[in-house]
Amino acid sequence: MRIKAFGVNRMDLLEWEGQYPVPPQASKTLGVEFSGTIETLGLHITEKDFKIGDEVFGLAYGGLSLALPQKERRTYAEYVAVSAHMLIHKPKEMTWEEVAGTPEACIRICFIGDDYLSFGNENAAATQALYLVGEFSPGKSVFWHAGASSVSSAGIQLSKYDGASAVYVTASSREKIDFIVNVLGATQGFNYKEQDIAKEIKKSTGPD
Hints:
By secondary structure, the chain is an alpha/beta fold. The protein has helices at residues 10-16, 96-100, 103-106, 126-133, 150-161, 174-184, 197-205, and strands spanning 2-6, 33-37, 55-59, 87-89, 109-112, 115-118, 141-144, 166-171, 188-191. The strands form three sheets. The protein has a four-stranded antiparallel beta sheet with strand order 1-2-3-4. A three-stranded parallel beta sheet has the order 7-8-9, with helices on both faces. It has a two-stranded antiparallel sheet with strand order 5-6. It starts with a strand and ends with a helix.
């Protein structure tokens, strides 16, 4: 893969500060999210799936041979080697930067256009939390803690898109709550540093 853009997320920042556990053989190069173009294909990849020159984005781990040098599996670089299972075609209407910042926060199991992508990484993702753990279906209300975080920000928008009846959130400041409600479209926000969240939720939703 030839890299066009890469994402910067919490894991990268923690790793940079030496606070994120990585395998002892891990490269000092950072990064797991990326967008770019396919330069070469492995022996078992058919043109039905991908072809040289395709514009794609994805994650640079999971499903890769452990024999591959660690430095070739990180995305703060010009090139990266990845598993085809971790790729999805880039939508034409999205920029390189937008898609590069999508995978870690937004995608675990997700439909984008006509493509289906299943990521087996261990990150806490909005789709996993909403559908696999929360068993969400249209018409239900949703509560997202730490609504200004990347995962919750994605989850708020996904909840609204898929027909949530209401979306409630918490945040640590009035400024964050205003952003979450006015920009991301949450129904109501609560300051978890100043308010009793359980009581506030009951006031908004009723005793049940």
